[in-house]
Structures are given as structure tokens and as C-alpha cells.
Amino acid sequence: MHSAHRHPLIAVLLIAIAIPVFGQSAPSSYIIGPPDVLQINVFDQPDLGGHFTVEADGTINFPLVGRIKAGGLNVRQFEDELKKRLADGFLRNPQLTVGVEQFRSQRIFILGEVRSPGTYALTGQMRFIEALARAGSALPSASGEALVVRAKSPQAVTGPILPGQDNAAAAEVITVNLREVQTGALSQNIELHDGDTIFLPQAESIYVFGEVKNPGSYGIRPGTSILQALSLAGGTTQFAALNRIKIVRMVGGKRKELKVGLADFVKPGDTIIVPQRFF
Questions:
Q1: Residue 224 and residue 263: Cα distance in Å, rounded?
Q2: 204-274: which CATH topology?
Q3: Which CATH superfamily includes the segment(s) 37-102?
Q4: Domain spans of the chain?
Q5: Is residue 270 a contact partner of residue 249, using CB atoms and an 8 Å limit?
Q6: I need a surface site. Which of 48, 92, 101, 190 has the fewest CB within 10 A?
Q7: Among candidates 116, 84, 82, which has minimal Cα distance to 99?
Q8: Tell me: the pLDDT tens digits for 134-149?
Q9: In what order do the strands lie in the sheet with 118-121?
Q10: Cα–Cα dist 214/42, whole Å
Q11: Does residue 11 surpass a pLDDT of 50?
């Protein structure tokens, strides 16, 4: 078995999967909103602390101070505001901490060729690879790219936004190269925003027939060679004539047969035919 340090992506994915959706520490820049659940601890005043749900009007009801606005503030701003309110005639130099116990106000959508598509809480400064791990990772049928569709007004997002839909007109589309992010390219591991939709399209297909172990349809990525395509089909049988492989390809609406070598590239929709060798 290979050790995890030889495969940095495996280590990253294991860490991402191990982190629970709830109970994470939030960065001070996280914008609080209903119905987030806050964990507030007041030093030397354990009876004041506890769990507080941000209500629909953006407030919580805190002991001594009553209603106080949390929605729309980041964690640090709310912490400072609560300290001021407690210091105003209640506690001398209050010391407290504010954390987000349950992230409910911000969410992302993960759709397409992943194992568990759905809606996920946007927890802290979540990045692409962690979100993909939450959805169970990409399926073998996924193409080599993922699309992150980002609304310019996330507050108006009520559901996923997909390329080509009417609600995508005012959205930004960011392309993430899955192969690069899997090899640790930090530039591809983008930070996600509230309302983002991650969409993994299905890979374009080819067909492999003849003297291969598992004939059928297979998804390919750009730059797939004939040899790689044959590997997808389980490799060739002992009867394969590797010097007479041909491709059936539609060119300009017409069907053409092309003789190819193992290093040549396939195109979406190609049919690879591996004939039987002569004895």
C-alpha cells in the first residue's frame, strides 16, 4: 500500500471528507445570516453562553442585552458589537468568543457526474476540492472540466444555476480543470461563494468494438489516444490486429473510415474497430 504522503490529493480528500458539515470554526469574515446557529461563550460567565439560532429578522435573543442584530455582520463584527452591549452597564471588560456551530444561511449546489449530487452548506472558506469530496468525488463518466456558475446576486439565488438556463444570463462561469486540481494546482482549487453551482458535465463518448475485452461506449477527455481508448475497453484480445485498427467518423455529415495508429487521437462520437488478425 502506498503511503498518503506520496499522494497529496488523497490526503486532502480524506481530510475534507473527515470534516463534518456542522461544528466547524468560522473565519472572522464569515457573514452571519438566518438560520445559522451561533455558539457564544462568555469568559467567567458560563450561564450567559450557549447556542443561539439567528432568526428570520437577523437577530438573536441574548441574556441581559435582549435582541441584538447578527444577520449581515461578519463573525468579528458581531463579536465586537456583543462586547459593547454587554459592557454597557452589565459586565466589566467582557471577554467572549463567537463561533458558527451550524452553517445554514449559505449554501452551494453540486450537480452532474458526482456520486452524491445535492445542496450543501457552505462552511467557512470552503474550496472546490473540499466541496467535491463532500459530494463523494467525480464519477468516471465525468469530463475533464467542472463549471462553477456564480450568480452576481447570491441573495436572489433560490436553486442551482446551470449553463444555458435563463437564470444563468447574469452569472459568471468559472472553468476548473479536474486533472490539474487533482495534481495539486492551487490556482484551480478556487474558493467558493454563497449560491455557487458546481456542475460536472458528462464526458463525450466513443465506441470501441471488435477484438477488445469489454466492447462498448466510453467517456473520453480531450487528448485521448487510440491506445488509451483501448485501455478503457479492457485492452485488446490475443486475436487483435493492431496494425489494421480503423475509426469510423462522421465528417461533414458523411461517414468515413480512417486507418489509424495507436498514438493517434480520437474524437467524440468516433467508433474504433479492432479487427481480428489473420492466421
A1: 9
A2: Outer membrane lipoprotein wza fold like (3.10.560)
A3: wza like domain (3.30.1950.10)
A4: 37-102, 105-200, 204-274
A5: yes
A6: 92
A7: 82
A8: 999 998 888 888 999 9
A9: 118-121, 107-112, 197-200, 145-151, 171-177
A10: 64
A11: no
